[in-house]
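Running this now, will post back.
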Amino acid sequence: MFSILKKEQLADGIYQYTVEAPDIARAARAGQFVILRLDEHGERIPLTIADFDAAAGTVDIVFQVVGKTTEELAACYDTGGALLDLAGPLGRPSDIPTGENVIVIGGGVGIAPVYPIARALHEAGNHVIGIIGCRTKDLVIMEDKLAAVCDEFITTTDDGTWGRCALVTEPLREVLEKRNDIDLVVAIGPGPMMKFCAETTRPFEVKTVVSLNCIMVDGTGMCGACRIEVGGETKFACADGPEFDGHAVNFDQLAMRLRGYVEQERLALDHYHGGEACQCQK
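Update: finished.
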């Protein structure tokens, strides 16, 4: 069992949990993820590690309520409760260069996994430019925390209620037009956002890395649920990634695969709302 030390609501439908997991915290690196299971009847869901503290023995996970398991986690598991399983760290860690100029971009809940990458880049002596984007002010998360590890920082919202009224691709293009010394762009967020960030950087021939949010089951490459086409080859997001060359990812296939279990997900949520037993730990 993994004790929940702290639960915090960051925005509407977005939560951060600090979990006691010393073995994972000691081994974790930026860019990796865990697979969580609430109880013995629960499904396995992948969540990127949003922060980790080896000394304290803790890992932070941030998630948005989108289906049955995340809704149950938010509603029924509080500080003092415990998760049955937390497997990790899984996936390949981010490749952290030194002495380079890097742009990190987080969209929506994708801001959370960008933070440990930005921190690692900052600690390695890189010049870090941070760009985050959300639909509206009320959904902006971790702004101050991420800004603290960036040398330059830009916040955008779709509706202009906070920061600049723009999509993240607009300041990204402006920076690339003004500077010819950007070595790397890291973009994490919804599939369409990552796709258009990659298309924005393509004409500038700047290396662009994205973190794929494929459906996963075992997290070790055995089940094949997270397979995705990268550069014309089949890759497994859990074992070969989750980070890949954004210019080589087949984002249309990714979007199709993410829709593969929409009906089953809807039925599971309907069943949960219909009275399925909740192992509530409030």
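The chain has a mean pLDDT of 93. More later if anyone needs it.
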